[in-house]
Amino acid sequence: MLHWLVHSLRELGFDARWIPERHPFLTGRSERLGKRVARAVGFSDRHRMGNPAWDVPVLDSLKGLGLREVQEEWIVVYPEAIFGNPLGAKRVVRYLLNQEGALGGRSMGAEPSDFLMAYSRTFHASAPVLYYPLFDGELLLRAGQAHSGQRTLCAYYRGKGVLYGECPEIPGSVEIRRDWPRTKAEYYALLEQVRVLYSYDWVSSTMQDAVLLGCEVRLVGSPGGLGEAALMSEDFEIRGIWHRTEEPGGGLYIPPGFNHVFLGQVQKFRAEFPVRLLTIFGEEIRHLHA
Fold first, then answer.
1. Is the pTM of this model over 0.85?
2. Signed CA dihedral, 256, 259, 260, 262: sign only
3. How far apart are CA 84 and CA 78, in angstroms?
């Protein structure tokens, strides 16, 4: 999402850059910090980030930008996994791509003057929400053609659910893992054969993929710190399409065939994103220049 943020800001005329882990600004200041940040956020040293079609240049001191200029003049956007202000910037934005402390239980160490925004309302109660549904083109193309009939498989996904409780094997079901299926094409082809996906992970792109490809999705296990109320909220990523079963315990599920409804939501939020981005970076963050 941070890669897409840089690309989108540049498309709107902002001079946005990516600062990787081993940038000269950080090297020597705290090697230990750099390694911890890399593990938590997944920084890379590649000069092209994410989708190779995106415009995500590295902020390179060889191009005439030094640490002092970044500190004094630039707005620095930190994800919630970054503690403190390692660049010493005067203008700081905290972009909560998860709940604060979710990775390692440590806070952001934000200052009162920092500007907070969140990827989802579930990650912060009052910060402006900047949400963009990140799905690749092949998935969205398949979603428009998917149907719910003639499906023979059931599948389950553990994901982050293992952090919150037991996630036993579901008999007669195929387990989808982070390392299997090996390619996205194989993964999509499998989901097109799945009638029901059981997810122990209540905040996973896997169940969004399954909804887009026409599967029924059922939540099992523990919701962790999220809770059911957030899932039922219109502000959550899969908005307004959760149902409650009449079975004992009243679990949450999404019926099969909701792919076109969700695809419409994805297209709507994508279309609105540039306006929301301009509102936040062009208007709401102006106070950082004071």
1. no
2. positive
3. 9
How far apart, in whole angstroms, are the C-alpha atoms of residue 256 and residue 193? 12
Task: Give the C-alpha distances (Å, rounded to integers) separating 65 from 52, 71, 242.
Answer: 24, 11, 48
Cα(17)–Cα(50) distance, integer angstroms: 14
**190 token code pair:** 């499998």
Taking every pair of C-alpha atoms in the chain, what is the biggest distance, in angstroms? Answer: 64
List pLDDT tens digits, range 254-283: 889 889 988 998 999 899 999 999 999 988
Q: Which two tokens stand for residue 218?
A: 């059922």
Backbone angles phi, psi at 77, to 5 degrees: -105, 115
> Can you tell me the distance from the alpha carbon of 169 to that of 161, in angstroms, rounded to the nearest whole number?
13
How is 19-60 classified by DSSP, letter by letter?
--TT-TTTTTT-HHHHHHHHHHH-----SS-SSTTS---B--
- Find all residues with CB under 8 Å of 200, minimum gap 6, and list them: 156, 157, 158, 159, 161, 162, 167, 220, 221
Tens-place pLDDT, residues 80-91: 988 899 889 999
* Burial (CB count <10 Å: 0-12, 13-18, 19+), residue 178: exposed
Rounded CA gap, 282 and 290, in Å?
14
